[in-house]
Design goal:
2 domains, five-stranded antiparallel β-sheet, single chain, Creatine Amidinohydrolase, binds manganese (II) ion, Arc Repressor Mutant, subunit A, alpha+beta, four-stranded antiparallel β-sheet, globular, about 290 residues
Amino acid sequence: MDANIFENYAKAGKILKDIFAALLVKPGDKIVDIADTIENEIVRKGAMPAFPANISINEIAAHYTPIPDDEITIKDGDLVKIDLGAHIDGYIADAAVTFCSNKNDMVVAVQNAVNAAVKLMKPGNKVSQISEAIESEIEAKGFRAVNNLTGHSLDKFTFHGPVPIPNVRNSMNYEFKVDDVFAIEPFATNGSGIVKDSGRTYIFSYLKDHNTRLPESRQVLNLAKKDFSSLPFCERWIKGITPIKFDLAVKQLVAAGAIQPHPVLREAGRGLVAQAEHTVIVRDKPVVTTA
Ligand code: MN
Ligand code: MN
């Protein structure tokens, strides 16, 4: 890996680390204020958001981002998963922390799992070893690992490369190589262990060009491709469009296959969900960019 590329990964990671270290999440806080503040801070520190701040509460596992006039506030005891992405020139850091106003064992379980997993991100180790470490740490606290959410490789402007890292035991024998970049993201639950599409979508990403007469669709697609570099985006990032026009535009673009919807994922058994995530560069001494 080029020294310059390594620096970009490291700097993006440090930005997320510093943001999480300074972040206060208190009962009564509006999640739209948290998201806006974090995203502005990513830019102020010299990176770009790699996706909208995901703030997913309790049985919502992932992919919730606040709408512009979002009324949701943090309640006492909520499991608040904040999942952030930052990139510099396309080199991405992806990290998540679960905040809870009470001491919560599920949060400890995912922290233990991610910490055990990143230590194993060495050349020659296999995906199955990482998954084993994750699932056993989660089980040790009496919870279930979520089956259908996985860690993933990272590449320039790319999230989900060809190699997933499941959170449950498997026989995947992909061997890590020096300078592979992966996000490791254990999810634990006291529910069914499966997440499903909740039917609502607030995050989208560019797929392909599409000719449309609706000016709002053209505007959204143009921003999605150019300003957001085909990375995920949300309504808060698009100024000057009414909510009704935004909904119309994204419906049309999704139907045309021009943008990808990333629906909100909910625990299928309505269990609570906790998540932890770090980005790591594979080395004999693994480099955890976000820790
Ligand atoms: Mn993430
Ligand atoms: Mn991720």
